[in-house]
Amino acid sequence: MPSPELAVLGLNVVIVLLAYLSVYPTLAGNQIHKIAAYDTLTSSIALAIVGYHFWESPYQFNLLIADVNWFWFTLISYGVIEIPLMLWYFKKHQVDTKL
Q1: CB atoms within 10 A of CB 89
Q2: Distance CA 32, CA 20 (A)
Q3: Around Cβ 45, how many Cβ atoms within 10 Å?
Q4: I need a surface site. Which of 38, 40, 76, 77 has the fewest CB within 10 A?
Q5: Would you state the torsion angle of the CA atoms of residues 37, 40, 41, 47, taken in this order, to the nearest 10 degrees?
Q6: What residues are paired with 67 via a beta bridge?
């Protein structure tokens, strides 16, 4: 069985890949406000799944620079995984980042 850190990272990778390769092109296109709304939903799904498993757990996740709880580990690792894909998607789909 993988460590909790690897399980959360794997979940985040799967969610981000599904979002940027399937959901966003189909439902959001190049509209920044739709991408932001769907991204809020997808990151919330990751937090809900991890929270379900670790809500009252005393387990501390290793974030290389500090030990943090499940919430911060999930949120920070999700962002780190998402940023390169987001930049690629914005460039490929010519997303106008001006609101």
Answers
A1: 19
A2: 13
A3: 13
A4: 40
A5: 180
A6: 62
- Tell me the average pLDDT of the chain: 94
Opening angle at CA 97, ends 94 and 99, nearest 5:
135
* 11-66 pLDDT tens trace: 999 999 999 999 999 999 999 999 999 999 999 999 999 999 999 999 999 998 89
The CA-based dihedral angle spanning residues 32, 35, 40, 41, taken in that order and rounded to the nearest 10 degrees: 150
Instruction: Using DSSP, state whether 68 is helix, strand or coil.
Output: strand
Cα(35)–Cα(31) distance, rounded to whole angstroms? 6
Three-class secondary structure of residue 67 per DSSP: strand
Instruction: Concatenate the DSSP letters of all residues of 81-95 into one string.
Output: HHHHHHHHHHHHTT-
Residue 99: per-residue pLDDT: 63
DSSP-derived 3-state class of residue 35: helix
pLDDT band at residue 98 using 50, 70 and 90 as cut-offs: confident
